[in-house]
Amino acid sequence: MSGPHNALELIIPSxxxxxxxxxxxxxxxxxxxxxxxxxxxxxxxxxxxxCTNAIEHGNKYSKDKRVRIVVELTDNRIIGRIQDxxxxxxxxxxxxxxxxxxxxxxxxGIMIMKAFTDEVRFSIDAGxxxxxxxxxxxxKTGSGSPGDGE
Amino acid sequence: MKINQRELQGTVVLDLQGKLTGGPEAExxxxxxxxxxxxxxxxxxxxxxxxxxxxxxxLGILISGYxxxxxxxxxxxxxxxxxxxxxxxxxTKLNLLFHAFESESDAAEYLKKGTRE
Lengths: 150, 117
Fold this sequence. Notes:
Number of domains of chain A: 1
Strand order of the largest sheet of chain B: 1-2-3-4-5
CATH class of chain A: Alpha Beta
Oligomer: heterodimer
CATH topology of chain A: Heat Shock Protein 90
Low-confidence stretches of chain A: none
Number of strands of chain A: 5
CATH topology of chain B: Transcription Regulator spoIIAA
Radius of gyration of chain A: 15 Å
Number of helices of chain A: 4
Helix content of chain B: 40-55%
Strand content of chain B: 25-35%
Structural class of chain A: alpha+beta
CATH architecture of chain A: 2-Layer Sandwich
Radius of gyration of chain B: 13 Å
Mean pLDDT of chain B: 93
């Protein structure tokens, strides 16, 4: 019997119906590492949100484009990289911009990614699309969640 | 995403089931909100007991429904919100927009009183 896997790679079509598969695969991986469920849910929320952005804003739901997801778990932290095949967008204004109007139906994706991770980084590779990198320190003992702060 | 519609104490309860993530399936919910408002049913409880999680697109659909019923003079509230969705509402500050109740009977009672300013 081999030990726990510490990484996963998924390539999904540009369709929201595959977001559930991303969540399920990550949940299974993290449980092998005995991570706290709340911590798993938090990172998975950010991961799914990054995939949502990649499908909607990056690939614009194109059937010809894919989203590549790589997640690596170590003893200290987890890193998720989500790569789309789109033309990129001006992410800087979203990273530091004001929160959306409460009645706006859009504009909360990066807010969610930032809230549930320690760091969100964007990079654009010419000809390869936008890559979002999510980093979060490992939480194996029920570390705090943004929703606990009230 | 599955949607079940029923009535409770003069309000409409929408039982959602699955993942609220946008896309064609979730567009059914948007259409349902529109239909309800057109039929004059403007006090709506969205029951999230069987919704695993939600993304930003799904939040947009809930906001769309909220906006529609508020414009019609009604209200839309949530009930049975799980921890994962509760965290998302909190970080996006949408907990300040949506009234969330632990039970649908509490939600129905609130809508009957029409207490929101």
